[in-house]
Recover the amino acids of this structure.
């Protein structure tokens, strides 16, 4: 939806493709329907690899929602789409995860109708702001992100593409009112299970993903990259080429002392370090991040400020 903090070296690597499905073929093995009889399609909200997301209005109730339409002729593996739907249904009910309302199929596309987030992407907010967030703001945003990821992990789901573009704001006035979206690369994973396919976005990809042996800890590395970005308006691992970005990630070295970091508290820096630990076994979990003294302290400070304001 506009801004991109993952472009240039952005990459999403999928397994070897199967033959695409022809239009008219039923993905779900049942009769197709006319989705335009149920929803009026409005403006485009975003475009992806396999389709687009548009604003839709329920013609019966007037409710506005977001509809992700996946073109069948671009769909390479039915099971990947089925898994995305299953994961969204599995995660339903959490306030920080985009809610899937319904699924429809017509002759040309599969349509996922979801709750509408009117505030755009967190990426847009970061790029428009052009300066680092105050620690209280960064902590509030990170708390919401960690809550969403903790719910995924407690539900045996690894997202695999945590980045600012995939966190949507419920409204434009509250940057911390976020919902996690886009589960197209997500997977079910059991405790201790290791995955091997290299998927995600280069700037946010954990080193063990490149090594083709990773679990849910990879999501926490991505969260650490986001926190680094919020506190400094710069990415920790950069390079002129995709390969240079990979090498920077593998080395795991980043700046926390010079420039804007001189004004960042040690508690905040420690939270970054815990998430950007190269060894996934030593990396903080989502629950550990939520219990971190920095987040806890910022939460108490915000509560006190609200009490004084009242």
């Amino acid at each position: 939806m506009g801004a991109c903090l993952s472009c240039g070296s952005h990459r999403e690597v999928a397994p070897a493709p199967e033959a695409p499905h022809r239009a008219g073929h039923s993905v779900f093995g049942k009769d197709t329907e006319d989705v335009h009889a149920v929803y009026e399609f409005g403006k485009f909200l975003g475009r992806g690899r396999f389709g687009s997301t548009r604003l839709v209005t329920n013609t019966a109730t007037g409710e506005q929602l977001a509809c992700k339409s996946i073109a069948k002729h671009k769909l390479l593996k039915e099971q990947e789409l089925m898994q995305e739907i299953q994961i969204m249904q599995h995660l339903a009910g959490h306030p920080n995860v985009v809610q899937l309302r319904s699924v429809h199929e017509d002759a040309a596309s599969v349509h996922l109708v979801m709750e509408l987030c009117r505030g755009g992407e967190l990426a847009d907010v970061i790029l428009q702001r052009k300066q680092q967030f105050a620690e209280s703001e960064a902590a509030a945003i990170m708390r919401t992100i960690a809550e969403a990821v903790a719910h995924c992990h407690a539900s045996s789901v690894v997202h695999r593409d945590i980045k600012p573009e995939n966190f949507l704001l419920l409204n434009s006035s509250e940057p911390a009112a976020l919902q996690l979206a886009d589960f197209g690369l997500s997977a079910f994973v059991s405790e201790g299970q290791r995955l091997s396919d290299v998927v995600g976005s280069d700037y946010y990809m954990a080193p063990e993903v490149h090594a083709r042996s990773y679990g849910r800890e990879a999501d926490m590395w991505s969260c650490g990259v986001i926190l680094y970005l919020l506190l400094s308006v710069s990415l920790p691992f950069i390079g002129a080429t995709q390969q240079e970005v990979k090498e920077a990630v593998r080395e795991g070295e980043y700046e926390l002392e010079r420039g804007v970091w001189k004004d960042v508290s040690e508690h905040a820096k420690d939270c970054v370090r815990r998430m950007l630990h190269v060894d996934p076994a030593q990396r903080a979990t989502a629950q550990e991040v939520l219990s971190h003294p920095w987040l806890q302290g910022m939460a108490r400070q915000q509560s006190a400020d609200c009490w004084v304001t009242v």
